[in-house]
């Protein structure tokens, strides 16, 4: 018969093993396993706009004047088959996953010069996830992970009627927050309605609840966890509005989140025994 002490000791060991496994997994996710420097990307976490095309960027240094063959394979974590494969100077789509049929391409005329980027067309919600670009070339081989996020976003359009100002943005997903500010960054009251279309994408309609003055600038911020748009609308003349919209993608935070989880779990482990 095992004593209570032995059982507790045994469970602690198991727990520590589980925790260590989890930490290693998190570290692997946080630092992107396998980017050995041969492959590069300008965007590790691109955001695809639902229904539109997105490029997953992946590039390598080719060998000068090399006639050797380049093979490029794009895979997605959690699905069978490939997203796209290119070898012997031609697409090889025998084991392409059906989800990606007819929606993926490489930029074939620039593959030999080091561009292995994937063009993914008509982005769908289920395309979100971790992709792996693997290249084997005379100059080296390697793979790199790229996380695609999927959202919907569009710049708002403004309408001015007398002293009332309204804004309308056609496509947002996930559902955004909407806020108005004056030129000094002070919050202004607004009223916002969301219309959810059949695809689950929101149309946003927002009214500024205070009189809008000629020559003043009003700021409308539409944001969800992935995207933030800041639109500055300046009322010009009797009825004009001139607008400038900036988009910011906020995809660094999910990675930071997993990084900050690591110390939290580590300290939990240290506290347990
Ligand atoms: C690869 O080529 C495509 C198409 O010309 C381009 O959009 C993309 O920016 C290129 N990527 C790099 C890293 O040059
Ligand atoms: C917004 O509206 C509320 C209620 O109508 C009012 O109490 C508040 O002062 C308003 N805020 C601003 C910044 O005008
Ligand atoms: C939006 O509409 C879709 C499909 O009509 C529905 O599945 C979804 O639950 C709706 N979402 C919200 C937040 O109302």
From TrEMBL:
It is found in: Membrane. It comes from Alosa alosa. Signal peptide: none annotated. It comes from the Eukaryota. It holds the Pfam family C2-set_3. Keywords: Disulfide bond, Glycoprotein, Immunoglobulin domain, Membrane, Signal, Transmembrane, Transmembrane helix. Its main location: membrane. This is Ig-like domain-containing protein. GO terms for molecular function: signaling receptor binding. Residues 51-145 form the Ig-like domain. The chain crosses the membrane at residues 7-31. One of its GO terms (biological process) is T cell receptor signaling pathway. GO terms for cellular component: external side of plasma membrane.
